[in-house]
Structures are given as C-alpha cells and as structure tokens.
Amino acid sequence: MTQPQAKREMQPGDAELLANFANHYGALRDEIHKVVIGQKKVVDELLIALFSRGHVLLVGVPGLAKTLLAKTLAAVLGWDFKRIQFTPDMMPSDITGTDILQTDAETGRRFMQFSRGPVFANLILADEINRAPPKTQAALLEAMQEYAVTAAGTTYQLQQPFMVVATQNPIEHEGTYPLPEAQLDRFMFNILVDYPLRENELQIVDETTARETPPVDCVMSREQVLAYQKLVRRVPVSKHVLAYAVDLAAASRPLPISPPVAREYVEWGAGLRASQYLILGAKSLSLLRGLPAPSCKEVRDVAVPVLRHRILRNYKAAGKGITTEAIISNLLQHVKEPDYTGKRVPKKAARIVDPLLLQNARPSAAPHQRMAEALKKVTGTFKPE
C-alpha cells in the first residue's frame, strides 16, 4: 500500500530536471515558432498537454497551420511522425494494421504476418478526424487510452512517448461524423485555433511567399520528454487545490445542487477525466511558471480547454446562443476556492484569466532555480553556500 505513495515523492534527480526545464521549454518553443508564426497560446497549450501525457483536439478552419504545428512538434522532438487523413471509406485496419498472408521463400509454408498501421508512431496526426465513420474513429480508443493495439486477438504495445493530435473543421458538416462522447473524453485539451493577428498574418504572407519552410533542430530527446512527463506526475498538489478541481468539474453537471447555469443550460456535464486533466494540466503549467506546486489559479487557467468539449449544451442554450465558453466562464465565477481547513472562502467574481502563461517572453530561470534549491533541501542534496 505504500509503494504507490513512494513513487509520487520528489526524487533527488528532480532538482536537476527542474533546473533544466526552463531552458528546454524555451528552446522547444523557439524552434516551433521558427515555422509557426503567432498562435502563442495554442503552442503553449499543446506543450502543456505534451508534458501531461495527454492528447489534443485542434479545432479551426482550414489554413491555420494545424497540420504544420503537429508536424513541427514531431520534428523538434525527434519523434516518429505519421499523418492519417481520415475519409468516409476508411476502415479500422487502415489505422491499426492487418494480418497479411505471406509465403516462406525456402519452405513454401504460408503464414499470417501482422503489418503495422500508421498508429505505430510517437506522434499521430489524425487529420479531419470527423470525416471517418464512428467505427474507424473508435480504432484510436484503445491506442489513446491503453497505448496498445489489438488485432486478430493479439495485443501490440505502442512505443512511448505516444501522442495523438487530431484536427477538426468546425464549419463544415456535410459528409462528417461527429465524434462520440467517449472519443472526445480521451482528449485532454480541445484547443481552438483562431485567425492570427493582423501583424502575424502580414509576417506569415511575407515569409511563406519569399522562402521555403525553415529547418528546425531537435532540441529534446525522447528520454528527456519521458522524464519530464514522470516529473509532472510527482509534482505535489495540496488538498484544497484537488477539492477546487473536483468542485469545478462537478459544478458543470446538471444536478439539483449545481449552479443555475448548469441546471438551466447543460444537458450533460464533465466526467471524472475532467478533474484528472485539470490537475495534470495545472501541474504542468506550474512547472512552466517555475512554481513548486499548482494553485487554484493554474486550475482556472487550464479550465477552458479541458471543459470545452466535455460540457454538452442543451437545446435551450443553443437557441439562446449561449456558448460553452460562456458557461465555463460562469462556473469559474460561481465555484469558490476552499481554504486549507476545507472550508470555502469567497472569491472575487472577476474576469477569466486568459489561459496561458508566457505570452511573449521565455520563462525566466530564476523561479526554476529557486524551485530546484527548495527540492534539494527536501531531498537532502542541498548544501547552503
């Protein structure tokens, strides 16, 4: 019973990981922005999902660099990258792979050999995932949740790290199949990719019409990514932050004790995975900000991409034009932060904090250095000067 708790404790090597995290993250983001101009919030949310070991659904109209962003991320990480273009006639075996009848050249004996599909890669781009029928979409369920593929009764493990980045066009509905709720719930974030700012669009048009796409360097190894993903799991979280994340997810459910906005405008609320991803996203965000542990502010900052696809509006909300983002905004103002004694304290009902973090500057090394020294004291490896 004590072994799982021991795995969550900070280890002596974590101080060095934290000291290098700012440099690695800054270099990773700089390399991505060599190719992807603007969209800083989108890039930051994608990296938070990466270090949280989550999958991402990118929603935006065509031409906003969704595919380019996923391809660039794989390049700067040095990952094996596969793109799956979903179509209405695609079969599940086109994704997972299939058994093929082969003949031994020496003996002439015939045998079945499994030919691996494109899902056997580190980063999968599921392009226009809503164009495939539900049975084909479901072929990704086991891979996303269990990191394995089963074909003809045999289970094949996927190589770690593994991440699915799916894209979806929100304005085109003809010939598409809406993702089922079970599939949507597997995605940690639903990231809205909007049109770039005017100055960014001017830069995009100027650079893409004058030169080829610039090359990017691999700045992080697979082993380092896995180490940071495990580090995020070991970040401590106080009980009042856990309670706030659970209360926020529970407030979205249309129950008698829920806030009025949930009872009146929500058909179905967020499930348990929402609470889990709120905490994981807050942990990853706290590391990016150089904090020793997440606070309720970090939970609020990741609430929109976590809850956007997990709250199902009812007909009344759709008729009145009330968006899911407006419902989340109301919930964030309604749910109050618990204090350290387990009681609730009033919170200022203010604006929603714009998710994400370091808009223009790379994270400073000073907070990460202070955090590393604090961890060294805990692990017994810190020697004061």
Quick structural summary:
The protein is α/β, with parallel strands linked by helices and 385 residues long.
Indicate the CATH architecture of the largest domain. 3-Layer(aba) Sandwich
Q: Class of the largest domain, according to the CATH hierarchy?
A: Alpha Beta
Number of DSSP E strands: 11
Q: What is the CATH topology descriptor of the largest domain?
A: Rossmann fold
What's the rounded overall pLDDT mean?
A: 83
Number of domains: 2
How far apart the termini lie comes to 39 Å
Spans of at least 5 consecutive residues with low confidence:
1-6, 346-365, 381-385
With strands numbered from the N-terminus, the spatial order across the biggest sheet is: 2-5-8-1-9
Describe this structure in words.
The protein is an alpha/beta fold and 385 residues long. It folds into two domains: 7-92 and 120-232, 3-Layer(aba) Sandwich (Rossmann fold); 235-344, Helicase, Ruva Protein, domain 3 (Orthogonal Bundle). Helices cover 45% and strands 13% of the residues. It has 18 helices and eleven strands. The strands form four sheets. The protein has a five-stranded parallel beta sheet. Strand 6 and strand 7 form a beta hairpin. Helix 2 crosses helix 4 (66-77) and helix 2 packs antiparallel against helix 18. The longest helix has 22 residues, at 14-35. The radius of gyration is 22 Å and the shape is globular. Mean pLDDT is 83; it is low at 1-6, 346-365 and 381-385.
